[in-house]
C-alpha cells in the first residue's frame, strides 16, 4: 500500500454512533466508507449469531448519528450447503441501508 493509501485506509477504526463508538474492519478517508467483515465459513453457532446482531447494531447506531458514511458488510459464504443465517443476514443488513458484498473466495 502506498503512503497516500495508508493515510486514507484505516483498519479497525472507530466511528461514533448515537449510543456508543463502533470499530469497523476497514474505514476509508475517515470516514468516506466503512465496512465490516463476517465469515460464515464456520458452522452455525451462537457466536456467529451474536456477530451478526452486533454488526446490525453497529450499522443502526452509526446511521442514527450520521447519514454518512455509507456502510457495508463483506461476507464469506459457508463452504458447503446453505446456512440459514447466511441467507437471512443480507436482508437484515439491506433493511439497515448497508451494502452487502459476498466474497467468492
Word description of this protein:
It is a single chain. The protein is α/β, with parallel strands linked by helices and 105 residues long. It has helices at 3-8, 46-65, 84-95; strands at 9-16, 21-28, 33-39, 71-76, 99-102. It has a domain at 70-105. It is built from three helices and five strands, in the order H-E-E-E-H-E-H-E. It has a five-stranded mixed sheet with strand order 1-2-3-4-5. A hairpin with a 4-residue loop joins strand 1 and strand 2. Helix 2 runs parallel beside helix 3. The longest helix has 20 residues, at 46-65. The radius of gyration is 14 Å and the shape is globular. It starts with a helix and ends with a strand. The model has no long low-confidence stretch (mean pLDDT 88).
Task: Summarize the helices and strands and which ones pair or pack.
Elements: H1 3-8, E1 9-16, E2 21-28, E3 33-39, H2 46-65, E4 71-76, H3 84-95, E5 99-102
Parallel strand pairs: 3-4, 4-5
Antiparallel strand pairs: 1-2, 2-3
Helix pairs in contact: 2-3
Provide the descriptors you would attach to this structure in a database record.
36% helix, 105 residues, single chain, 3 helices
Task: Summarize, please.
With 105 residues, this protein is α/β, with parallel strands linked by helices. The protein contains 3 helices and 5 strands; from the N terminus they run H-E-E-E-H-E-H-E.
Amino acid at each position: 500500500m502506498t503512503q497516500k493509501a495508508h493515510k486514507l485506509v484505516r483498519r479497525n477504526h472507530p466511528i461514533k454512533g448515537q449510543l456508543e463508538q463502533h470499530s469497523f474492519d476497514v474505514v476509508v478517508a475517515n470516514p468516506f466508507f466503512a465496512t465490516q467483515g463476517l465469515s460464515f465459513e464456520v458452522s452455525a453457532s451462537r457466536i456467529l449469531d451474536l456477530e451478526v446482531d452486533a454488526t446490525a447494531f453497529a450499522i443502526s447506531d452509526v446511521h442514527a448519528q450520521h447519514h454518512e458514511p455509507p456502510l457495508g458488510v463483506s461476507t464469506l459464504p459457508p463452504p458447503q450447503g446453505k446456512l440459514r443465517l447466511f441467507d437471512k443476514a443480507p436482508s437484515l443488513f439491506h433493511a439497515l441501508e448497508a451494502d452487502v458484498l459476498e466474497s467468492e473466495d
